[in-house]
Write a structure and sequence with these properties.
With 620 residues, the chain is an alpha/beta fold. It has helices spanning 17-21, 48-52, 64-71, 85-88, 95-103, 114-129, 142-151, 165-177, 191-196, 211-220, 249-253, 271-288, 298-301, 311-325, 331-341, 362-372, 390-398, 408-463, 482-488, 490-498, 513-525, 564-593, 595-619, and strands at 5-7, 27-28, 37-38, 58-60, 77-81, 109-112, 182-187, 207-210, 265-269, 291-295, 467-472, 477-480, 529-536, 539-549, 553-560. Strand 2 (27-28) and strand 3 (37-38) form a beta hairpin. Helix 16 (362-372) crosses helix 17. The protein is elongated and about 145 Å long.
């Protein structure tokens, strides 16, 4: 069986009106604006969330298909009507036409639960007159019963041990038509859908539908009053039970004393009245000393009604309907029926389904209040969050049922802080954009400079008489000049025509192994090799290899020793090396000879001077 209440996340607009409407917080809101969750265990079936949801994301379980299956079963069916039909079907000219329309669906008998109201009213009257010190809360409304079972289980013993009007009339019609007759209830509530599932045997209600669903069935079966005659509601008929949809209608049905000075029962109706009255009953019944007749208020504005609002107008329609029904009323027949069916066992028991949660510590509540900007002394509350005060709100935050954002003042404060943070972020973003533009300009300039430098470097490499090659750690050529290509010979020159600069070429395929070994050594050990002579075929090459990026990139300078300019430069270079080595040796000998070397130097200088003088004499 599908849950009584469901939420379509694709339709939900996250307005959280459902959360604020729920009297037991069976709808949970989480931080971050996520879709609310519905706790079926906590739901009491009042349907306020359905009525509060403007986009129609929340729906109650449909029983239309179950009703159609029942109508098409061929079984004998009795329909039981709530007297609230007067407030719903004012667009139908006469209630007797409505009876015929219902029978056209496949129903043999139509009864009104007003008689069950009369019956239960007198059962309650007997219970109250036989007072033995226990004060009762009426159990005629399944919403109130569910609320007490789940949130005030200590009061289960104070629930009057009597069935609801729907179950009472079910037993009556099966007493009349036999236990095999099928029963469908039609009313303004949705809680009756789940209530019907709790009973078996002669108390079983096969299907419970709303007025809204009844209109849908009329449309699907193309049933219109203009083609139908009048039909009367089947007996047993009621007396004042038709006033049940009104706040004090139940007391009126039993002719109970309603004098405020002497009445033994208070009649209360509405969501807030239910919550407050039951809390008061639990706390102060020893002082109040009254029985409570409590209804949620769904009889005239329930979730199964299509025409909501205009409460006084609807009350007028109910009173008008009751008066019309009483015009040809046979009170003696009614009384005889009442006495006969008072013999039915209409008792019931209740089961605790405690959904209460432990109250958080005072310290935790104070922490949450502080986060909300509240204290225990100023926590009266604005009611906008759906709670009576800020302390109740803080308790449910601690229990994970709601989020701080549901508090209007907190949300406004958070919004202001968010706007300030957003403003600061925008300023930082603007600054970042400015820096990015400057960085882009700088990068562009650097890129242009790098390009110019690259072009200049390439031009310089091409001007060098020595071959230059740069390779990566896989010995793939990164860059090479034309001289290097020429040194390698014809094969390399052919590759260069296809791939300029030999970029990406495998060095292993271009030079011999002894040459490769030198590059591998430099890349592995990160040490340079300078002026190494290598003979490749008939060619003698002078090679210097050095690391550029450790372990990743190395460069090589290769000179062809056959080239005339290289030969001249090399001869000069090598003579210079020999002279440098000899000078170094003379310096060492001079150092060893010490003062003797100095004397020899003086003697040599004297001989030179003498020699210069002799030359001058000979010249003269």
């Amino acid at each position: 069986m599908d849950p009584l209440i469901s939420l379509d996340s694709q339709v939900c607009t996250r307005c959280y009106a459902c959360f604020r409407a729920c009297p037991v917080k069976a709808i949970h809101v989480h931080t971050g604006g996520s879709i609310p969750d519905i706790s079926i265990q906590r739901c009491i079936g009042c349907g306020d969330c359905v009525m509060a949801c403007a986009p129609k994301a929340i729906k109650y379980r449909s029983s239309v298909n179950d009703a159609k299956a029942l109508f098409e079963s061929g079984d004998k069916i009795v329909a039981m009507l709530s007297p609230s039909i007067a407030a719903e079907f004012d667009d139908i000219s006469d209630y007797r036409k409505l009876v015929t329309m219902i029978k056209a669906l496949g129903v043999q008998h139509v009864n009104e639960i007003s008689f069950a109201i009369d019956l239960l009213a007198y059962k309650y009257l007997s219970l109250l007159n036989d007072f033995k010190g226990r004060y009762y809360i009426t159990s005629i409304d399944p919403v109130v019963v569910s609320y007490i079972e789940k949130f005030h289980p200590n009061l289960i013993g104070n629930l009057a041990p009597l069935v609801s009007p729907m179950i009472a009339l079910t037993k009556v019609v099966r007493e009349i038509h036999g236990p095999e007759v099928r029963v469908i209830y039609i009313g303004p509530e949705i809680a009756t859908k789940d209530e019907a599932l709790k009973y078996e045997g002669i108390e079983k209600v096969d299907v419970a539908i709303t007025f809204e669903e009844l209109r849908q069935l009329f449309k699907e079966y193309s049933i219109d009053e203009s083609n139908l005659e009048y039909s009367s509601i089947d007996g047993p008929l009621s007396y004042k039970g038709s006033l049940y949809p009104l706040r004090n209608g139940f007391a009126q049905a039993a002719d109970m004393d309603e004098n405020l000075l002497t009445a033994s029962m208070f009649s209360l109706e509405g969501k807030k009245a239910m919550v407050d009255a039951i809390t008061e009953f639990e706390s102060n019944i020893a002082t109040i000393q009254r029985h409570f007749c409590i209804t949620f208020g769904n009889n005239l504005n329930g979730p199964g009604i299509t025409r909501r609002g205009d409460l006084l107008y609807k009350e007028h329609l109910v009173i008008k309907y009751a008066n019309k029904r009483l015009q040809n009323f046979f009170r003696v027949e009614w009384y005889d029926n009442l006495q006969h069916f008072l013999e039915l066992d209409l008792s019931r028991a209740f089961t605790a389904d405690d959904q209460r949660l432990p109250t958080p510590s005072q310290e935790r509540i104070r922490e949450i209040l502080a986060e909300l900007g509240k204290t225990e002394t100023d926590a009266e509350g604005c009611l906008e969050c759906g709670y009576a005060n800020c302390i109740e709100f803080a308790i449910d935050i601690a229990n994970g049922f709601t989020a701080p954002e549901m508090c209007i003042s907190y949300a406004i404060k958070s919004s202001s802080q968010y706007e300030k943070s957003l403003h600061d972020l925008n300023e930082k973003l603007a600054q970042a954009r400015k820096s990015l533009r400057e960085s882009e300009e700088k990068t562009k300039h650097e890129k242009e400079s790098a390009l110019q430098a690259s072009e200049l470097t390439n031009a310089m490499l091409e001007k060098l008489r020595a071959g230059v090659v740069i390779v990566d750690n896989m010995l793939k050529v990164v860059k090479a000049n034309t001289t290097f290509t020429n040194i390698l010979g014809e094969e390399a020159e052919l590759i260069n025509e296809v791939v300029p600069g030999l970029v990406g070429a495998d060095l292993n395929r271009l030079i011999p192994n002894n040459f490769i070994t030198l590059f591998s050594y430099v890349l592995t050990d990160n040490e340079s090799i300078e002026n190494r002579d290598i003979k490749i075929g008939e060619n003698l090459l002078n090679v210097s290899i050095f690391p550029i990026v450790k372990g990743k990139v190395a460069g090589g300078i290769i000179r062809d020793m056959r080239a005339p300019e290289v030969q001249r430069a090399e001869v000069i270079n090598r003579i210079t090396e020999v002279i440098d080595r000899n000078l170094e040796m003379v310096q060492k000998i001079g150092f060893l000879l010490g003062e003797g070397a100095t004397d020899i130097e003086h003697m040599l200088n004297s001989i030179i001077e003498f020699y210069k003088g002799e030359n001058k004499k000979l010249s003269s």
